[in-house]
C-alpha cells in the first residue's frame, strides 16, 4: 500500500503547512536520502504517498522533520539553542505490502508519533 506521513502543529491547532521533511533509508552504513519535500496545506506530502507499494521495501527508514525552521517561519520566538530543532523518527517496515502511516504531532517543546492507518 505504501508509506505516508501527516504533521499537525499542536501549538496552533493546524496542519504543519510548509514544514520541510526528508525521508532516508537507513539499512546501509550511511543513511541514503530518498526524498525531500515541503508539506502542503493539509500537512501532507503534496504528491501523496512518500513511497508507493512498488517502492516500499522491508527495512529501516528515517523521517526528519525540520521543526524549528517551521515554527520560526510562523513567527514563534524560540530560545537559542532551540529545544527541538529537527525531529528524527526511525522506524522499521516488516511487511511492505501493508500501509505504513507515520504521523507527527508537534509543538516547539514536544512531539508524539504512532503507527497510523
Task: Describe this structure as you would to a colleague.
It is a single chain. It contains one helix and nine strands, in the order ββββββαβββ. The chain has one helix at 67-73, and strands at residues 2-9, 14-15, 20-25, 32-38, 51-52, 59-66, 86-93, 99-106, 111-113. It has a single domain, classed as Transthyretin/hydroxyisourate hydrolase domain (Immunoglobulin-like), CATH 2.60.40. It is globular and about 40 Å long. Strand 8 (99-106) and strand 9 (111-113) form a beta hairpin. By secondary structure, the chain is mainly beta.
Layout of SSEs?
Layout: E1 2-9, E2 14-15, E3 20-25, E4 32-38, E5 51-52, E6 59-66, H1 67-73, E7 86-93, E8 99-106, E9 111-113
Parallel strand pairs: 1-8
Antiparallel strand pairs: 1-2, 1-5, 3-4, 3-6, 6-7, 8-9
Any key phrases for this structure?
5-stranded mixed sheet, Immunoglobulin-like, single chain, mainly beta, 4-stranded antiparallel sheet, globular, 117 residues
CATH superfamily: Transthyretin/hydroxyisourate hydrolase domain
Class from helix and strand fractions: mainly beta
Number of helices: 1
The rough form would be described as globular
Topology, number of strands? 9
| CATH architecture heading | Sandwich
Strand percentage: 35-45%
Summarize the amount of helix as a percent range.
Answer: under 10%
Q: Summarize the biggest pleated sheet.
A: 5 strands, mixed
| Rg from alpha-carbon coordinates | 14 Å
In short:
This protein has one helix and nine strands.
Amino acid at each position: 500500500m505504501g508509506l505516508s506521513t501527516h504533521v499537525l502543529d499542536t501549538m496552533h491547532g493546524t496542519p504543519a503547512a510548509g514544514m520541510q521533511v526528508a525521508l532516508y533509508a537507513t539499512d546501509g552504513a550511511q543513511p541514503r536520502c530518498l526524498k525531500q519535500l515541503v508539506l502542503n496545506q493539509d500537512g501532507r506530502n503534496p504528491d501523496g504517498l512518500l513511497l508507493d507499494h512498488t517502492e516500499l521495501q522491508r527495512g529501516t527508514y528515517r523521517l526528519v522533520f525540520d521543526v524549528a525552521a517551521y515554527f520560526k517561519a510562523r513567527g514563534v520566538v524560540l530560545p537559542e539553542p532551540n529545544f527541538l530543532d529537527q525531529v528524527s523518527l526511525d522506524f522499521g517496515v516488516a511487511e511492505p505490502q501493508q500501509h505504513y502511516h507515520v504521523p507527527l504531532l508537534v509543538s516547539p517543546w514536544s512531539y508524539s508519533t504512532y503507527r497510523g492507518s
